[in-house]
Amino acid sequence: MNKGKVYLSGPDRLLKDRVERFVGYEKLCEKYDLILLKYPEELFKFSDTLENNRKIAEERIRLIKECDIVIANAMDFRSYVEPYSEVGLELGIAFSLGKKLYCYVPDLRTCAERYPGTTHVKENGKTVDENGIGFEPGPLNVMLEQSSKLIKGDLEDALKVAHDDYYGGED
């Protein structure tokens, strides 16, 4: 069987230590007999033009098409209860292509439980925010949660599950 190719989605590529992180991520993938698809360095940089943005998006889509597995860091981004916005789009593209999808989060409490603002419980038992907007019943948006396997933990926890799924639990 061919080794599974992994595309990583999430805000990790924005961090200052991204290059070192991805070297470590590549080694973690190898530990689980998976191949991390490598991003060209320009995919790690913020773009300053619409033309560059288009090229970055096209390259990421190409990598998603090439992969077998998408593993997304779906942690709360910038203190909100939603993952980094690119995660949703990348998972949507991958889902439409029939890829295996995994989201890892450090906290499986519901969105309402993690929400940093004010919440209210309505008479019908539904929890809403200060604007009256309800929360999903689980830790992620229903579309992300239902299209992917949700894992409590970190990348390595997700890689363990992806490995077992991809290789059928065989070592």
Give a description of the structure.
Helices cover 39% and strands 18% of the residues. The mean pLDDT is 91. The protein is of the alpha/beta class.
The CATH topology is given as: Rossmann fold
Number of strands: 7
What share of residues is helical?
Answer: 25-40%
Q: Unreliable segments (pLDDT under 50, ≥5 consecutive)?
A: none
In what order do the strands lie side by side in the largest sheet?
Answer: 2-1-3-4-7
Structural domain count: 1
The overall pLDDT average reads: 91
CATH class: Alpha Beta
Structural class: alpha/beta
What would you report as the Rg, rounded to the nearest angstrom? 17 Å
List keywords for this structure.
5-stranded parallel β-sheet, Rossmann fold
Question: Can you describe this structure in just a few lines?
Answer:
This protein has 171 residues and is an alpha/beta fold. Helices cover 39% and strands 18% of the residues. The protein has helices at residues 18-31, 50-66, 85-96, 111-114, 142-147, 155-167; strands at residues 4-9, 34-36, 69-73, 100-105, 119-121, 127-129, 149-152.
What is the topology?
Layout: E1 4-9, H1 18-31, E2 34-36, H2 50-66, E3 69-73, H3 85-96, E4 100-105, H4 111-114, E5 119-121, E6 127-129, H5 142-147, E7 149-152, H6 155-167
